Amino acid sequence: MPIQFTDYRDLFLNDRPMMDARAPVEFAKGSFPGVVNLPLMNDSERQRVGTCYKEHGQQAAIVMGHQLVSGDIKAERIHAWADFARAHPEGYLYCFRGGLRSQIVQQWLKDEAGIDYPRVGGGYKAMRTFLLETIDQALAHCDFVLLGGMTGTGKTEVLTQLRNGLDLEGHANHRGSSFGKRATGQPSNIDFENRLAVDVLKKRSHGIEQFVLEDESRMVGSCALPLPLFQGMQRFPMIWLEDSLEGRVERILRDYVVDLCAEFIGVYGDDGFGLFCERLLASLNNIQKRLGGERHRRLLILMEEALAEQGRSGAVDLHRGWIEGLLGEYYDPMYAFQREKKGARIEFAGESGAVLEYLRERLHQ
Q1: Which of 7, 223, 261, 364 is most deeply buried (CB count within 10 A of its CB)?
Q2: Does residue 258 share a domain with residue 214?
Q3: What's the number of domains the chain is made of?
Q4: Which residue is catalytic, options 52, 95, 261, 277?
Q5: How many other β-carbons are positioned within 10 Å of the β-carbon of residue 199?
Q6: pTM of the predicted model, to two decimals?
Q7: Known active-site residue 52
Q8: Which segments of 149-259 does DSSP mark as H helices, in order?
């Protein structure tokens, strides 16, 4: 087994187990799918060592680090690393640059637990650079197609049925609109970009050189699309997905009321329904200025009545009132303008079955 490993493509294509020896604050800013954080130093220890490094130099910082991580603390951390290494003999460890911290973890594992465990050369920084380059290379060499359409036409449903679909909203854990927040939080922006890049890498490894993705704004909730990708989306050809108003209302009712409510209850238990109500009302209030005072008040009354009835009886029929109003008076005029603006790029329009057939044929052209 190599002491240092630099085949980043292999790491991500094969979902190699990895333990991240960086401090929790570094890990929280961004990491990679499935990675476990088992730090050499916690946040306060890292901060103290960093201050020592600035004031007294590297050797003094190293001495302090060994003083802080010693005795029972050291034994406890080695035990956690050893458990991971034994559970994942095919795995790797890394730190920020593949330098001192991962070398120390590697050496202590060998000395104290008798385990030779490889580290990732270049560490987090090199792997992150590799993933960003993966997106850039795909933009340079692959064909991209946008899937557009009115709110509620089921664009995500179509994307998830395509071998070459890139589900931006799935990677961002957000449905993309003002009502798009889920019961669980969004990843950090770095995590979002990394998930997207790994998806692209895996699809390209299976020979896919054309991708379909939803026509999004730069922000999917709190996650920003990589700028080169967003810039490319301003010129990619577009497929326009259509559905009846009735079909769209039913889909929104299912996704944003029935399923989202169940999601909140699944995550928060008895508090879930109340939190779901708060989320739905907050989503409407977030677009109050754009709706205008009178329209916002009218839709708010409909939503409050629907939530009250849902709480009493479980029935969701009343939600159709505010959904229809929001579509007809707010979302549809915006999307109609967008369709007209992007009309020259639309190469096909139709309902889901026809769009799926067209996109699958396009993939094999």
Answers
A1: 223
A2: yes
A3: 2
A4: 95
A5: 20
A6: 0.92
A7: no
A8: 155-159, 168-172, 189-205, 227-233, 245-252
